[in-house]
Amino acid sequence: MDWKLLRAVSRSFFLTIRLLPRPVREPIALGYLLARASDCIADTSGAEIERRVEALQQLRRGDIAPHALAALVERQANPAEAELVRSLPGLLEAFEASSARERLDWVWGHILRGQLFDLTRFASSSEPLNGAEIDEYTYLVAGSVGEFWTRLCAELLGDFSRRPVEALVPLGIAYGRGLQLVNMLRDRRADAAIGREYVSDALFAEAKRRARAGLESGMEWVSAVDNGRVRFACVPPARIGLEMLDRIEVDSGPVKISRQAVRRVMAGAIPALWSRGVR
């Protein structure tokens, strides 16, 4: 696993994932890098939408043409993201060799479907997503990740939770959806400016309510987990999301949490290593 690359493209995720138990650490990191790489391709504004769609479809089939990959690398504005896209052949090799390949294939397949939905939906219509589309999109790109984490940890960690996995899966899905809704609400003005209106003014209040409910489901999921390292990794995103929601209003611009606030949240999550009662 290229931990240096992971740190370059996501410092906050890198900090928490290194504390995950060894059996799930690398599959989760690899899943993140694959999803982030395909997201970089989907967001390559310098490439035509048809070219991006073709590249994502190639990835769904398990391969990508070298010339197509090289062209996409050249159009990445961020050097770390360019290196991530360039690293896709190696990531695909690690994916094929992974003992968690079946689980990774399932979750990345859902994420790729969500990324393709995103590209094609807004290429054909500038109308905001309706409620059903929001449900579909948030499950594909984030709710599926909550399900992936839950099932993977239940399979590979003997001390994961005493609760049945099928009782935890809906909480994990809701948590993932809640985190994605926070992102959509936080960035909705900037997204709308480029023709991607994920949450309209009319659906803002309901989306915010559902985001909060999803994060609360995430904390319930955390409280049901017996493994302290998994708890510690999963508390901070919920707390940061809740802080963001308190600042997001229908007419607000982008909301950011300072590094000092992130460090405070991380420090506050340390008791989760020993206690399930951390909220």
Q: Could you walk me through the main structural features you see in this protein, from its secondary elements to its overall organization?
A:
By secondary structure, this protein is mainly alpha-helical. The protein has 2 domains: 1-122, no CATH class; 125-279, Farnesyl Diphosphate Synthase. The chain contains 14 helices and no strands. The mean pLDDT is 90.
* CATH topology (level 3) name of the largest domain: Farnesyl Diphosphate Synthase
Q: How many β-strand runs?
A: 0
Class computed from helices, strands and strand pairing: mainly alpha
Strand fraction equals under 5%
| Backbone shape | globular
**Helicity range:** over 70%
**CATH architecture designation of the largest domain:** Orthogonal Bundle
Helix-strand sequence:
HHHHHHHHHHHHHH
- Would you state the CATH class of the largest domain? Mainly Alpha
Q: Please outline the major beta sheet.
A: none
**Relevant CATH superfamily of the largest domain:** Farnesyl Diphosphate Synthase
Q: What's the rounded overall pLDDT mean?
A: 90
The number of helices is 14
pLDDT under 50 segments (min length 5)? none
Give the total of domains.
Answer: 2
Radius of gyration: 18 Å
Separation of the first and last Cα atoms: 32 Å
